[in-house]
Design goal:
Elements lengths: L2 E4 L2 E4 L3 E2 L10 H14 L3 E3 L8 H9 L9 E6 L8 H12 L6 E4 L7 H13 L6 E4 L3 H8 L10 E4 L11 H8 L3 E4 L16 H10 L3 H9 L5 E3 L6 H9 L7 H10 L13
Parallel strand pairs: 3-4, 4-5, 5-6, 6-7, 7-8, 8-9, 9-10
Antiparallel strand pairs: 1-2
Helix pairs in contact: 1-2, 1-9, 2-3, 7-8, 7-10
Protein name: NADP-dependent oxidoreductase domain-containing protein
Pfam families: Aldo_ket_red
Organism: Secundilactobacillus collinoides
Length: about 280
Amino acid sequence: MKTVTIDHQVLPAIGIGTWHMGDDSTVESQEIKAIRTGLNAGAKVIDTAEMYGSGAAETLVGKAIQGYNRDHLYLISKVLPNNIAKTIEAHLDASLQRLGADYVDLYLYHWRGGAPLIDTITELERMRIKGKTKAWGVSNFDIDDMSELWNLPIGSKVAANEDLYNLGSRGIEYSLLGWQNRHGVPMIAYSPVGNADSLGANMTRNANVLKVAARHEATPYQIILAWAIHQPQVLAIPKTAQPDHMTDNVAAMNIDLNKEDLALLNAAFPAPTQKQPLDIL
């Protein structure tokens, strides 16, 4: 099973995403079952945000984790840029109340806003010192943002960066992913299997993806997930409301892609040869 280490915690390399979950009360029980299925199958990380359904996803997660040992979970949430200044503690408290938790393990600055970066991370660090988050990080940061952050007095405390990354969207490989590896900053990959609205080719129908899937007796989605975490220190957080799909997602941690597999996938979806704008959903 592949793992990632964030803030000295060794975590399974596939977690549970929750974007667009909690929005429809008619499927709440199914979504809760999906999250619990993932946890029972070996996932530990649940990624959410105050933005997702204006707190509805956090509320759903709070319901799903009732009865679980908090020490066996790794909860990630995010704060919106316009809430980062003097009101950050109130917003984190609201997230904790929805989650039914005393702390989150990782609190992310959801994307960069207009406030000075030093002021932002000072507030995040204050939340860490108060014990309301074990660590803090960023999301939707590109290499220039990360370089600027790293050079700030407490910038090296950043525990992770969360960006869009999948087989069909490899722009971060040109410079950002290598930078993060050299500086020991894990990457959290959101949308690791793409979605209906994103960025080009249908990965699941690609002939090379299907060939690799057949070799491993796996689904195309599992191969795409296995590819996303084949690099060191990448945590993927796919979202699904289907319990059976959740089981498949978690099982993808056990697929080992060999050089021939990777060559086929790289041929179908080549690595970038020049700097590209950061993909954001």
